[in-house]
Amino acid sequence: MKKNLWVKIFAVALVLMCALTLAACNKDDVPNSNQDLADLDKELAEKAEKGETSKGLIFKKQKTGDVEGYFVSGIGECTDTVVILPTEYEGLKVIGVAANAFKKSNITEVYLPEGITDIKHHAFAGCTTLKYVKLPDSVTEMGSNTFEGCESLEKVYIGKGITVIPLNAFNGCKSLEAVLLEDTNVTYVGDNAFYGCEGMIKLTLGNSITEIGDNAFENCTTIARITIPDSVTKFGNNIFKGCTALGEAHFSSTMTEVPTGMFYNCTTLQKFEIPSNITVIGEDAFRGCESITKLKLESNIVEVKNSAFMRCTALEELYISKSVKKWGNFVTYFCKNLAKIQYEGTKKEYEEIQCLSEPEKGGEIYIVSPNKSLSMYLSVAAKFVECSDGTFDIEAIRNDLGFNGNINDIPGVEGEEGIE
Fold first, then answer.
1. The listed CATH number (3.40.630.30, 3.30.1360.10, 3.80.10.10, 3.40.50.300) that belongs to domain 168-278
2. Model pTM greater than 0.90?
3. What local confidence, expressed as pLDDT, does residue 90 receive?
């Protein structure tokens, strides 16, 4: 009897868990484009037109460019949680929001009227109850950390005047459901701009974007798919690091290098192709991508940098083009299921690949031909490399080197626990 009861309880719990998961991943109100958010403040705009604006706010007269007007510089005596800014104050236009103006206040919504051009740094940082924001098309300048730590922020409309998403702009906005930049004029997404936006279900990058900074979307743990537009020509490091739900990635046709740490710890990444324009796989580029089972390094790839595929624990087959001329340190370390390695060229061509094995913890530096490379074969299950004119017996080479698969066998390098 007790056993049946526990089975029923477990079944109910399982159904509830599945329902919650599906609800989180298939929210009906997640917008499809930035334009879908254009009426985000419609109700507040109507109140503003009737003069129903917030009272008690602090204003300060100043210039932005050649225009003199008022900046909202603080919440003052205003007790509103839904804040409506006026278009004018004492006969002059309201043209900006000052640095730290609403920082850590308890507002839930804010209406920013057309005419505001400048929002300074930390203007709304730490507003943990703020849910919705429309940045009007008149805004052309945003300071750093503008909405950092706004943990309840769900929806944001990016106005047509914004060309730069600055440093830490939405860092830690863990409820933000979507970042939709295809209908905007954004050209640059700054460092850590959307770092830790854990609830981001949808991400679209517009064709106006030319540069993405370091860690821009790191730890956005619910993004499932991304497409990098051809307009992007400059990439920072660790852009999608820790995006653990990212299963599909489409590269731009203008990329020449997969940048450092781009997909580091994207544990579900499986569907992607490295296009022919890529010549370099950056350091840690696919490190910790535990779902990759087969990998082709073909076409024009010339260099594979340190730890590029380290801890790709499901990797079983690796194909290497003869275009590869440089092989980094610990490239396939901890790839314990890598049983088949195939090289397009001859043994001689394979031996001519420059291979650098440099222990991370100091000690000797090994520069050896790949058939005796400690970096390539550490913790690899394969016993040979297939070349176009024969095979290399890896096991025999290991025996010649006195290497039995333990990192401690390399002088100057600490054990497995010392390497992340």
1. 3.80.10.10
2. no
3. 95
